[in-house]
Amino acid sequence: MMTFRTTAAHKRYGGFVRVRSGRVNRLAVVLLRVSRRDLSCCLSALLLFCLGSVSYQLNGGSPKILLDVGYYIGRFADGFGSLAPRVLPFPSQVVYNRVGKCGSRTIVLLLRMLADRHQFTLVSSDIHNKTRLTKLEQENLIQNISTTPQPFLYTRHVHFLNFSRFKTDEPVHINIIRDPISRFLSNYFFRRFGDWRGEENHVVRTPGMKEDERYLDINTCILESYPECTNPRLFYIIPYFCGQHPQCREPGLWALETAKQNVLDHYLLVGVLEELEDVLLLLERLLPHFFSDVLNIYRSPEYRKLGNLTGTVRKQSPNLEALRVLHQRMEYEYRFYHFIRAQFHQTKRKIGLKSGPQRLNKQDQTEDPLT
């Protein structure tokens, strides 16, 4: 039988091996514990993500806390200046193809005050009387909009532009409409008599209007079917959402359904002027980089000084018979208006707003659609 001598050196190194082995075992236990803890954290994060996704699906968008966290993280990052590159807000491209006599003057005034405060590019087009574009004009306009420095908000009186048709990144679309008869009456008297910025401005806007036409009684216009008070001129709101197709300008079911589908597919929000303060609250919630604090500005004396000059003068209401005839002629406009109101109220419920119609200020009911 062979025997082995255990030298002193062997005993010394053997002890080292046993000590090292013990350390490795303890390290393995620690790593195992850390791995279990990490696994628990990962599962918890996954659960929160799933719950957040469900909340997103049920509530029609990101919960308020996520919007607020994202907004303030963006502001925090911007505060470091050159130490951190500026992160563009999402969305960073907004298009407001404003409908005439539907609060556009109010919103543009507010946007001018907000643009400097929130550091976004505001482009408010001076083209007021060209809502229908050729294919080439659409392509050129979309190209010009898309190359605007971001973040930007572009606004113009123009029928809906389908960016995806021209293989361009789709911006976020927003808009506001109002009761169709109220919009028609506001426009009817504004074209004739202007607003409080100076009654002579109506002469500049409608220089070719004869005196008998300018002072035409609204009831006579409606009941005797003058062109201004019949279709297709009464078919005004729907084309802004239907788009540039020629059939969009023909009163009928096709244009109505196309407009409704475009709202569902392309618009983040379409508000109603009768509930303007809720519209502003939703815009502030959904697009904080552009509209944060907009309601406080709207209620401020600074805004009132500018807004009080835009009310239409000499405005009158038709008699009941004329109103009944007008309502019949605007059947599709009202079907679209009721659809938008229902969608708007649904969005309010999802966000948590429960207020109803509000009393509007004079300038919000009759403001100039052309500025």
Automatic annotation (TrEMBL):
GN (gene name): LOC100331876
Annotated organism of origin: Danio rerio (Zebrafish)
Name the record gives this protein: Uronyl 2-sulfotransferase
